[in-house]
Amino acid sequence: MRAVTWDGRQDVDVADVPEPVIEATTDAIVDVTASGLCGSDLHLYRHLIPGMDRGDILGHEATGVVRETGPDVNTIKVGDTVVVPFNISCGMCAMCRQGLESQCQTTQNTKFHRGGSLFGYTEQYGHIPGCQADTIRVPLANHTTKRIRAETPAHRAVLLADVLPTAWQGVTYAEMEPGMCVAVFGLGPIGQMAARLAGRQGASVIGVDPVAERRAMAERHGATTIDPDVTDDVPGAIVDLTDGLGADRVIDCVGMEAEGSALDSVLQATKVQPSRVTALRHAIDAVRRGGTISILGVYAGPVQAFPLDQLFDKQVALHMGQANVMRWMDDLIPLVEDPADPLDLDDFVTHRLPLESAPYAYDMFQHKRQGAVKVVFEPSPPVTITA
Fold this sequence. Notes:
alpha/beta; Quinone Oxidoreductase, Chain A, domain 1; Rossmann fold; seven-stranded mixed beta sheet; 26% helix; 21% strand; globular
């Protein structure tokens, strides 16, 4: 079968790899109908996070059709269409019973002091082969799959594996109420969806992003936007737009993004989070006193000179963490299965590309070309060989 493999810094390939097989009685084998390209994949692509080996299969978002199940799998059957969330979780431990699948005790990586295992990530998170492949093995399939209607378009269904639940969790953690103002830093895939979900809950949204196409997409869905490349004082602009108060809620969807910064080379060399965490510092300056900051962006490593005194003085609440996908799935499936497409997901998936185009797609997405917001890989058409 074909799969997207990591071959070194900023080097991916689409290679022939062995097909997965059942390894445990709770496994399932799923033929992938769509997989997603995520900003977290770029962290691996750029080798910002250690622990990748050449030939590792990338990707952590998938939907597909069940081909085979182990004898102890009873929540799905062969032929079912399923979403495969990026968390690998048992559904039975104390963490999972609290809806904290990202902290699953069964798949927790205690050697590295990390949470539950993830598809397509480093040894710190289980080193499980990823989802950008023709076929995948799903461990603990009773809880690491979710059935969805077969007629749901795959490019929409795959968004349930990460983007939608991550954005939903961020909005939920922000504890918004109708009429509040929410500032969203970063209008990539997660930021776009967080902005839409916040607006759906009655908030006014201010989005911050330097990419014109991303600002335009957010504006189509009701957001006011700010270009940080032309606005010297982004927090000040947000304060001005909120009658001097600041945003009631701020959602940081940027995290360790540092492309193009002067310290990017340091980050590459040391694999340590640089002092440049502009979005987080702007979030702290932009939120009103007594407000809440919800952090969805990934931070790998310590943040130097963290302004705890400012957070304390402003009485700001922080809420953050890896998304617990299954916790939110039942809330989101109706929005994805609805033929009316209430979240306008067709205006969210900007590129539907064959799996074989992965090297091009990674480069395009990293450099934010061609208006790329969400890239979905679909099975490459079969090659017909004639005599």
